[in-house]
Amino acid sequence: MSEIDPAVALRAKRGDEQAFIEVVQFYYPRCLRFARNMLGSDQDAEEAVQDAFVRVHDSFGRFREDARFDPWLFRILANRCRTLLARSRRHRSLIEYGEVPLSAAAPAEDFGADWAEEVRMVLDTLPAEQREAFLLRHVEDLSYEDIAAATGVGLSALRMRVKRACDALRARLTEVEQPNDR
Amino acid sequence: MIDETDELIQRAARSLKALPATNPLANARIIAAVRARRAQTPSRIVQVAQWMREPTLSAASAAFLAAAALVVGFVAGGALRTADGTSPEIAATTERPVPPGPAPALSAANTHGDVAVALLFEARNAKSVAVVGDFNNWDATSSPMKRFGSDGPWTTTVRAKPGRHVYAFLVDGTTVVADPRAPRARDLDYGGDASVLMVTTP
């Protein structure tokens, strides 16, 4: 996991527009990945990410200069995703989602499309708070302490959410896994 | 980082880790939204680059833009040549006669080594057009184009360092259009259309 140079975040906080542009360019792919995984909709994800960055800009005055930027950014983004989830109760189009060109700056492995889609479908069935905790922990690789800072949820509750998410994923994926998936 | 999961969960997590491609236009929309917020807040000082403060289009500057469009066509490469060997930029400029006047320098490098390049685009029904490119961080607010006359082509001047650049026109804030007069960029990592601009030192 990489974090932006704290000096850049600091410059952005102090009003340096070029630094803010660097922040956006640095975090946009990760933010969009998280929002897509949370919302299952490309359009909603882009909206959430844009809203999050605008709020980052508006709220920079409250960002402590000795704090780490990642948890703060993901706190704002997760809030935006929760708001969109609450606002939009419609069913997400998994077909549309599957067509999103994840041209992958860094796909570590060549997963079959069926497997990846299955994972997303199972993820979609999880309660939002479990999905959020699982994604922050195991996809965005935040520490539990950082997730606690980002979500405002206690460590033990977070560990339980992640465990339940893993249990559900394991149960469903074991059912659908094919021998030649690997 | 995964510590309490088995191999199945690790594989599931990895399948979700593919990063979306960088999307300069989405980034540009974010920056534009932030700038719009700043514009609504008088207490904030918005830094504006000197080159963005374009003078009102005068006869002389119109001549400059029209002439500079020829330069763009020249530096953009041989692909611009039409079947009969003429340049489409020449056709574009003769379609709307250039007012007479002294021709200023076509381009000039500033102290940072940036070169001013005039761009021209035909979109008669557009309400607004902006240039977005790697030279302005794909910022839709950085390089708005102005109409030449009441229904003429859209023009603006951008500054870019010598070398190869990728750009496009953003029409009415929503539609991205490649420059029909320039070679098409083929190495983008996102789905938009864009063109290639080769900038040379004047």
Query: Helical proportion of chain A?
Result: over 70%
Strand % of chain A is under 5%
Major protein interface: A-B, 52 and 37 residues
Series of secondary-structure elements of chain A, N-terminal to C-terminal:
HHHHHHHHH
Structural class of chain A: mainly alpha
Q: Number of helix segments of chain A?
A: 9
Helix content of chain B: 25-40%
Biggest sheet of chain A: strands, sense, closure? none
The radius of gyration over CA of chain A amounts to 17 Å
Low-pLDDT residue spans of chain A? 90-110
N- and C-termini, Cα separation of chain B: 53 Å
β-strand amount of chain B = 15-25%
Structure characterization notes:
The complex is a heterodimer of chains A (182) and B (202). Chain A has 182 residues and is mainly alpha-helical. Chain A has helices spanning 6-13, 17-39, 42-59, 69-87, 94-98, 113-125, 128-139, 144-151, 155-176. The radius of gyration of chain A is 17 Å and the shape is globular. Chain A starts with 5 loop residues before the first helix and ends in a 6-residue tail after the last helix. Chain B has 202 residues and is of the alpha+beta class. Chain B has helices spanning 7-15, 24-39, 59-76, 88-95; strands at residues 115-121, 129-133, 146-147, 154-160, 163-171, 175-177, 195-199. In chain B, the strands form 2 sheets. In chain B, strands 2, 5, 6 and 7 form a 4-stranded antiparallel beta sheet that branches. A 3-stranded antiparallel beta sheet of chain B has the order 1-4-3. In chain B, strand 3 and strand 4 form a beta hairpin. In chain B, helix 3 (59-76) runs antiparallel to helix 4. The longest helix of chain B is centred in the middle third of the chain and has 18 residues, at 59-76. Chain B starts with 6 loop residues before the first helix and ends with a strand. The interface between A and B is large, with 52 and 37 residues.
